[in-house]
Amino acid sequence: MPDTTTDLWFRVLNEVAIIDQLARALFEARLPSGFLVSHFSVLNHLIRVGDGRTPLELARAFQVPKTTMTHTLGGLERAHLVEMRPNPEDGRSKRVWITEEGRAFREEAIAGLGPDVARLAALVPEETMAALVPGLEALRRALDADRDRPGPP
Amino acid sequence: MPDTTTDLWFRVLNEVAIIDQLARALFEARLPSGFLVSHFSVLNHLIRVGDGRTPLELARAFQVPKTTMTHTLGGLERAHLVEMRPNPEDGRSKRVWITEEGRAFREEAIAGLGPDVARLAALVPEETMAALVPGLEALRRALDADRDRPGPP
DNA sequence: ACTATATAGTACGATATGATACTAAAGGCA
DNA sequence: TGCCTTTAGTATCATATCGTACTATATAGT
């Protein structure tokens, strides 16, 4: 494996890290004070894949430790954006339901981003963005698949 | 602006967030206990662009608040991986110099990643990775340029 | 059924990150 | 020169994130 491979991977992952940082900062600035991208992401996920997920399912979906998800869900619950109810099929577990307030919060957040997306979309052609998707998906799948193989300790 | 534009941006930024999370976790697991990607990134930056940068320059390069950079540099300094010396040209400021230990730390970290990159490179064709670079750069530049225009408060 | 193991969630503590507010030095301008 | 504003860095504090350890429940093996 030539060094250029490592260089290329570093370069891609470095760009990814900067993009994530900038996008997160921009988005967070649009959310009501006290809310983070993590809160929105959970609400958005519950809409996309349907609510009634368990905390552990959510933690896996976002690749965060379950303690982090407990914390994030606690914030959402205190704000009445989700409700946690016992899981009738498993006494250890719970299910997370989004409330009407939660749905409204998500929709307002998305609407609030409209002008930002519009400004950015004027700077990056739609084809450029669309062309990124397959490569990013392939990269994400590779990293995800590799996660199961810790390799050398 | 059609909704599909917002959807596309969400999709790209979501993939970016997951990739960053997975890559960071993988990398951090290879670093000596107590060190984070942020520490490595600073060392790597000092090698790439040359040391003698000021803390503020570094904060800007990584798009983090200067207080965060102060903290990160503190960790590097305690571990003797960098030295902070006064800036003779500006009494308010300092300059950051990488030590021999710092150089060695960086090289070992990169070497330690070798097997990981090799495994991942087997899963994602080099062309796929290379093809991502221009689009990611364009996206990063757009986000960076937009940062100066807060838009609607 | 009984025991051992695995799993879901949480409590607690450590630390990274980031906002606010401060100090000290520079720079601008009368 | 003296004053005002800007800038570099840090101290302090709030909180997000995550590791460890614990409890309660479920599952497997006998």
Largest sheet of chain A: 2 strands, antiparallel
CATH architecture of chain A: Orthogonal Bundle
Biggest sheet: strand arrangement of chain A: 1-2
Strand elements of chain A, count? 2
Give the low-pLDDT segments of chain A.
none
Mind telling me the CATH class of chain A? Mainly Alpha
Overall 3D shape of chain A? globular
Between the first and last Cα atoms of chain A, what is the distance in angstroms?
A: 21 Å
Biggest interface and its residues per chain? A-B, 63 and 63 residues
Instruction: Please state the CA-atom Rg of chain A, rounded to the nearest Å.
Output: 18 Å
CATH topology of chain A: Arc Repressor Mutant, subunit A
Share of residues in helices of chain A: 55-70%
For this entry, give a set of tags.
two-stranded antiparallel sheet, MarR/SlyA-like (chains A, B), mainly alpha, homodimer, 153 residues, globular, Arc Repressor Mutant, subunit A, DNA-binding
Summarize the structure in words.
The structure is a homodimer of 153-residue chains. With 153 residues, chain A is mainly alpha-helical. The first copy, chain A, has a single domain, classed as Winged helix-like DNA-binding domain superfamily/Winged helix DNA-binding domain (Arc Repressor Mutant, subunit A, Orthogonal Bundle). Chain A is built from six helices and two strands, in the order ααααββαα. The first copy, chain A, has helices at 3-30, 37-49, 55-62, 66-78, 100-123, 126-146; strands at 82-86, 94-98. Chain A has a two-stranded antiparallel sheet. In chain A, α2 crosses α5. The first copy, chain A, is globular and about 50 Å long. The interface between A and B is large, with 63 and 63 residues. Chain A binds a DNA duplex (30 and 30 nucleotides) through residues 36, 38, 54-56, 64-72, 75, 87, 90-94. Chains A, B: Pfam families: MarR_2. Chains A, B: GO terms for molecular function: DNA-binding transcription factor activity. Chains A, B: This is MarR family transcriptional regulator. Chains A, B: Residues 1-141 form the HTH marR-type domain.
